[in-house]
Q: What sequence folds into this?
């Protein structure tokens, strides 16, 4: 794998900008015909690690955390929906939508990585949450999504009872935070160069070309 460009994407499954950023990255990879020359790994970042099990209504959450008004929140949803269409992703915001705890999702994504299906599960969870109005903190929902991508549901769900799996997740989050990652998405190339935020396709093309020169 040493001849490939290693791309770490630090993100959360309830982060709308994360799917936009990934969509732009994929466009850049396709434009440069690098599909077989990159290795993508998703890294955990919990936007709301202390979110209670019942979650928090999105508008109330935005007001509390970001000081959003109902008007600015509605504008954001409209703009996000438009951004989504540029990367063929459907945002389906709805009244009463909740931001939820994502710790279980991240533990399962680590398991999926060991099975070679991490990106498949990540994209499935993005769609489940933003498009299909599903609660991705609900373990029944998570089990269903695991099955959709062909993972061993029983084996995967057992990880949620594992103290070691939880400790691994916390260690991973701490590792990236100590390197200065404080917002998502953050995309790191070969462990050195990083782009924060949902960068445009052109920015990803530029950094990928630079990485190719050093590969």
A:
């Amino acid at each position: 794998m040493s001849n490939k460009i290693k791309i770490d994407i630090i993100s959360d499954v309830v982060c709308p900008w994360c799917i936009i950023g990934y969509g732009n990255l994929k466009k850049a990879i396709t434009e440069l015909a690098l599909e077989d020359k990159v290795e993508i790994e998703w890294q955990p970042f919990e936007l709301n690690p202390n979110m209670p099990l019942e979650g928090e209504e999105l508008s109330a959450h935005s007001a509390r955390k970001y000081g959003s008004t109902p008007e600015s929140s509605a504008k954001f949803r409209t703009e996000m929906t438009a951004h989504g269409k540029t990367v063929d992703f459907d945002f389906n915001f709805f009244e009463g939508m909740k931001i939820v705890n994502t710790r279980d999702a991240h533990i399962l994504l680590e398991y999926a990585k060991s099975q070679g299906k991490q990106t498949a599960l990540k994209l499935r969870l993005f769609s489940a949450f933003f498009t299909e109005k599903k609660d991705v903190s609900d373990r029944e929902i998570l089990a269903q999504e695991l099955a959709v991508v062909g993972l061993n549901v029983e084996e995967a769900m057992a990880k949620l009872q594992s103290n070691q799996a939880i400790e691994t997740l916390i260690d991973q989050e701490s590792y990236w935070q100590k390197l200065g990652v404080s917002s998502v998405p953050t995309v790191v190339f070969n462990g050195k160069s990083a782009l924060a935020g949902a960068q445009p396709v052109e920015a990803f093309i530029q950094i990928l070309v630079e990485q190719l020169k050093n590969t």
Summary: The chain has a mean pLDDT of 96. The first strand starts at residue 5 and ends at 11.
